[in-house]
Amino acid sequence: MANVQFAAKKREAAGSAAAARLRRTGRIPAVIYGHTQTVSLDLDEREFVNGIKGITESTIVQVNFDGASHDAFVKSTQRNITNGKILHVDFYEIEMGKSLRTKVAVRVFGNPIGVRDGGILETPLREIEVECLPKDLPARIEVDISELKANQSIHAKDLKLGDGVKLMSSPDKVIALVKFARQEKAQVEEEIPAEGAAPSAEEKPKEEKK
Fold it and tell me: What are the two backbone dihedrals, phi and then psi, of residue 118, each rounded to the nearest 5 degrees?
C-alpha cells in the first residue's frame, strides 16, 4: 500500500492564465485520470516536491481530495526548462483489486568479479514490463551483480520478481553483461608489429626489376 500521500483540491478555473496565478500562490495544477473521469486538481508545491523524492513511475501514491483517497501513479511531471520548477502533474488512478500492466525500474548494484578482472560492464535494460495486482507491484527491482564474471550475463528471466508478479518483457532481454576486453586488446596488440621490428617476409616490399 502507498505510504506517500498528497492533499489535493479540486480546481475549477482552467486555462494558462489561471494556472499561472495558481503557481504564484505556491500550488501546482494537476489532473487525475484512469478508471474514473478526469478531475482537475491543484497541489501544494513544497509537499509534492518533497514527496516525490525517491519514488519511481511504479510507486503507488495516495491523492486525497473531497474526503476520499485515490490510489495512483505519478504518471508525468511537466517542468520549466529554465529553472526546473514543476508546472503540471498527471496522476493515473488505479483499482487496487484489478490486475495492471506497467513498467518497473531495474537498478543494478555491486562490483562484478568480471570487472575487477578487467572486463567491461554493460547494462542495456533499465526497466521491464510486468503484470500483477497493485498490492504486489514493486517500486523497483534490485539486482546484485557482484558475482557476475567475465562473459556472463543476467537476463530478465533471471530476476526475482516476487509472488504474483508476471514478467511481460522478453525473458531473453539482457539486464547486465560483462565483456572480457583484456584478451581482445592483447590480440590486437599482437597483430601490430612493435616499433623497429623487422617486417615479415610477406610484408617486405618487392624489389623492382631494372
Answer: 110, 5
